[in-house]
């Protein structure tokens, strides 16, 4: 049960991804391009847990703009990028900049929607683990500083 | 400095037969000072200078001997008259170097001749090698009527050539004190003209290659009016005339070549160009026919010809190496011959005249940047009387070679242009394909999702189901539209070319458009009556409708679209079609981008419109650009090459 933002310029695509993810019990918002996405990301409170975004919308690098905006808002946001035909260079770029994963929209015979839903689940799992670790680190910090004070 | 030196500096020394001329007008004085006998009533035959051969009436030849006395002693001896002679020479040579009208120069030369040698009449006649005739060019003295001027003397007659004919054929000067006593030459050209001629002198005019181009003839009604000094003077004047005529010839040639050069640079219609080249070659080389072959698919194909082979254009084909022409193409070397049949390479497969009629043959390779692209050849007919020949000279060969290399340069340029356009087209196509694939991919993604939802275990009901189905239908439709636009784009690069008249097409089409444009007014202005182009009517209409649609879209509150067709001032064989509107216009940085495939500022539409327009325009050999002022409206200018502009002439259109 997470808060997800779906960004894609194709209206039907937005709706269909939303339907699929809502079926898994998530709350889904949509945006039609990176500008609207940036707006929604900055206004969201609390920030989105996951952002699913298309790569090419207003420009060829739209997806990266969304990624940047999401991570700036909250470093722990999991971003999944949808690409039309896998360009390895693009994919590498996304991962280097902190995306969780990327998914190709047009692999023959692959149900992209299910694949997407699965990745969302895994992302959330890992995120839970990371958040847990962070919490513990913070606790450890606090305990250490308290110990030093005495 | 002596006037004699001055004159031999001005005149080309190679044309002077001997270095010095005794400048005297006083015949007796001169003869006596040179120790030459002078007899009344006889033809002068100074013994040292005569040249008897084969029973010809003795004539004096211009010798390469130096006169016995020093020039200035002779001149000084004959004071005023000599100086008058010198001055007249000087004035003629001044005319030559100032290069005025050739007619003025010829007349002046003749007048000087008459004065200097004391003749009553004179004329210059030029040889026409095609007809084998002497034709009078310029005259001096009295008694010349139109009838006399139009007399032609046939050089090919074997009997009674006359003095002029003899000189024209042999190149040897002729002098007679009493023509009536000279049986051999009495029935001569000049005699046909003036009956009471007694003395006469005829000298040849020789061109740069030593080729005889005509004769200069003077006459008197007195016996023994001339001596061999007069002959020398006349020779000198004849050389002046010959140089001037040659120069005028070269000048005319040069003009023709300059004209041709300019046309070659700008003309885009290759067929017309090749025809022009062939016509110019015949003219400036004084040939009887010219043919141009170009290499097409490893064979030499006839592309242009003037005479007998004209009907074979596109059909006459040589293998490389076949015949003289094929040899030239294979070895990229010229061939220059008089008798084609004696050459082992001769095949005689396609000839402008039957082989025995060919008097001279010249073929040069048409060189492109990398290799031989064809052969340009000229032919002269053999004259039935083979006593004089008219072969092509090395000068002629150089000239033809120059023409051929210009043709080669033009062909190279055209090929490069075509490749460039093709490369641009391929690039646009590549871009187009990439973006089309992307968009198709998006639609398919949607289809996959919709189908998936429909198959889901919680089958959506009613409205939701309808929405999903219509989403599928919509996607499929959009994909088909996309495919259609893509196919159209691919096809638009190759337009079908028919001859069509643009003005009436536009009038009609704009009428149609007006019925659909509602608020927006369309104005059509042109000063041209007719513009014939090679093009595809449907595709051109598509271009205009696309531009009009765009304009309407960007003028939501109405406005005016102005369409005009004018002749290009910079390139008169092109027309400019301008489509401008009163909308917002296009910012500077976008003016080129708008023609890219899938560029779109519209929510609807694929953004292919302008890319397709550009592709169509380019396929017609034209260009398109946007030159409007941002804020005042868009202005598209299309240039198209036209076959004919203006009023239709009665000339039949080439197929």
Give a description of the structure.
The complex is a heterodimer of chains A (150) and B (655). Chain A has 150 residues and is of the alpha/beta class. Chain A contains 5 helices and 5 strands. In chain A, helix 3 links the parallel strand 3 and strand 4. In chain A, helix 2 (34-43) packs parallel to helix 3. The termini of chain A are far apart. With 655 residues, chain B is of the alpha+beta class. The longest helix of chain B is centred in the middle third of the chain and has 62 residues, at 394-455. The interface between A and B is medium-sized, with 16 and 16 residues.
Largest sheet, spatial ordering of strands of chain B: 3-2-1-6-5-4
Structural class of the helix and strand makeup of chain B? Answer: alpha+beta
**Annotation, overall tally of beta strands of chain B:** 20
Report the sheet with the most strands of chain A, covering strand number, pairing sense and barrel closure.
5 strands, parallel
Summing up helix and strand content along with how strands pair, one would put the structural category of chain A as alpha/beta
The number of distinct helices of chain A, counting runs of at least 4 residues, comes to 5
Shape label of chain B = elongated
Order of helices and strands of chain A: EHEHEHEHEH
Mean pLDDT of chain B: 77
Instruction: State mean pLDDT of chain A (0 to 100 scale).
Output: 91
What percentage of residues of chain A falls in helices of 4 or more residues? Answer: 40-55%
In which range does the helix fraction of chain B lie?
40-55%
End-to-end Cα distance of chain B, whole Å, is 68 Å
The interface involving the most residues is between: A-B, 16 and 16 residues
